C-alpha cells in the first residue's frame, strides 16, 4: 500500500507537469499564430480599386507580386534567390551583391546600383546617372527621401511602433522600398504621416490581435490588408 502523502505528492507532480506542457504548447501556438505575411492589399481610391497579391516561398520571402487595377492585370514581378538568401534574379535581370553594393543588370549592362549602409540607401539609375537617397531612423524606418534634384519627396517623422504589413516578410528592405515602391508600407513600423512636396498626408490605422494593420485611412484613400500565416 502506498502512503497517501506519496500518492498526493505524485498527483501534484503530474498536474504540474501537465500544466507545464499545456503552457509550453499554448505559448508556441500563440507565437506562431502571431507571425503573419501580407496576402492581399487593396487601395480604394477616387480613380478605382488597385489590388495587390503576394506569393512567398517557404522561408517567407516574396517570390511573386501581382497588381490588378479595376480587374485588369497591370504588373507582375518575379523574384529569385540564391542559396545565401540574397535576391539573384528580378524579372529576368541579374542581381549581384558585393559587400554593401548591389547591382541589377540587363545582360552585362548595369541598370541600377544600390549602396547600403546602416542609416542610408542610395539608388543610382545608370541610364540617367540620377541618384535617389533614403535615410533611416534607428528602427529601420525611412525618415527622409531625396530625389536626384535634392527635393524632399517623403519625410516621415513619427511611426506608430506597431508592425508594418511587411514586418514578417524576409525579402530585403531595399527591394521592398524601390522595386515595389513601398516607401510607406515596407518599413518596420507604420508612419503616422508623410510630407512630400509640401503636401501632408495623415494616416489612421486599425489593427488585428497580432498587431498588424488591417486598415489604413487617409483623406482620399483607404487601404485594406489581409494576411496568411507564415
Which structural class do you get from the secondary structure elements? alpha+beta
Overall number of strands? 17
Number of helices, counting only DSSP H or I runs of 4 residues or more? 2
Strand content: over 45%
Rg of Cα set: 23 Å
- Helices and strands, in N-to-C order? HEEEEEEEEEEEEHEEEEE
**Strand count, sense and closure of the main sheet?**
15 strands, antiparallel
Morphology: globular
Helicity level, as a percent range?
10-25%
**Span between termini:** 53 Å
Mean pLDDT: 81
Tally of structural domains: 2
Spatial strand order of the main sheet? 12-11-10-9-8-7-6-5-4-3-2-1-17-16-15
What's the SSE blueprint?
Layout: H1 4-33, E1 36-45, E2 48-56, E3 62-69, E4 72-81, E5 87-90, E6 93-98, E7 101-106, E8 109-116, E9 120-125, E10 130-136, E11 142-146, E12 152-155, H2 173-178, E13 193-196, E14 199-202, E15 204-207, E16 213-218, E17 221-229
Antiparallel strand pairs: 1-2, 1-17, 2-3, 3-4, 4-5, 5-6, 6-7, 7-8, 8-9, 9-10, 10-11, 11-12, 13-14, 15-16, 16-17
Please tag this protein with its features.
230 residues; alpha+beta; 15-stranded antiparallel β-sheet
Give a nutshell description of this structure:
It is built from two helices and 17 strands. The chain has helices spanning 4-33, 173-178; strands at 36-45, 48-56, 62-69, 72-81, 87-90, 93-98, 101-106, 109-116, 120-125, 130-136, 142-146, 152-155, 193-196, 199-202, 204-207, 213-218, 221-229. It is 16% helix and 48% strand.
Amino acid at each position: 500500500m502506498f502512503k497517501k502523502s506519496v500518492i498526493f505528492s505524485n498527483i501534484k507532480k503530474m498536474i504540474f507537469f501537465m500544466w507545464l506542457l499545456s503552457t509550453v504548447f499554448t505559448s508556441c501556438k500563440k507565437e506562431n499564430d502571431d507571425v503573419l505575411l501580407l496576402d492581399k492589399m487593396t487601395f480604394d481610391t477616387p480613380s478605382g480599386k488597385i489590388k495587390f497579391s503576394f506569393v512567398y516561398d517557404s522561408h517567407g520571402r516574396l517570390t511573386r507580386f501581382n497588381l490588378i487595377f479595376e480587374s485588369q492585370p497591370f504588373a507582375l514581378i518575379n523574384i529569385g534567390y540564391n542559396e545565401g538568401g540574397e535576391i539573384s534574379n528580378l524579372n529576368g535581370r541579374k542581381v549581384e551583391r558585393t559587400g554593401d553594393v548591389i547591382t541589377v543588370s540587363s545582360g552585362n549592362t548595369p541598370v541600377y546600383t544600390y549602396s547600403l549602409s546602416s542609416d542610408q540607401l542610395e539608388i543610382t539609375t545608370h541610364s540617367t546617372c540620377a541618384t535617389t537617397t533614403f535615410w533611416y531612423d534607428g528602427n529601420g524606418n525611412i525618415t527622409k527621401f531625396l530625389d536626384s534634384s535634392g527635393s524632399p519627396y517623403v519625410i516621415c517623422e513619427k511611426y506608430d511602433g506597431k508592425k508594418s504589413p511587411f514586418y514578417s516578410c524576409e525579402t530585403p528592405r531595399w527591394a521592398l522600398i524601390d522595386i515595389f515602391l513601398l516607401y510607406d508600407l515596407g518599413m518596420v513600423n507604420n508612419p503616422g504621416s508623410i510630407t512630400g512636396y509640401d503636401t501632408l498626408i495623415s494616416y489612421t490605422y486599425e489593427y488585428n490581435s497580432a498587431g498588424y494593420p488591417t486598415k489604413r485611412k487617409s483623406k482620399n484613400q483607404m487601404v485594406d490588408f489581409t494576411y496568411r500565416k507564415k
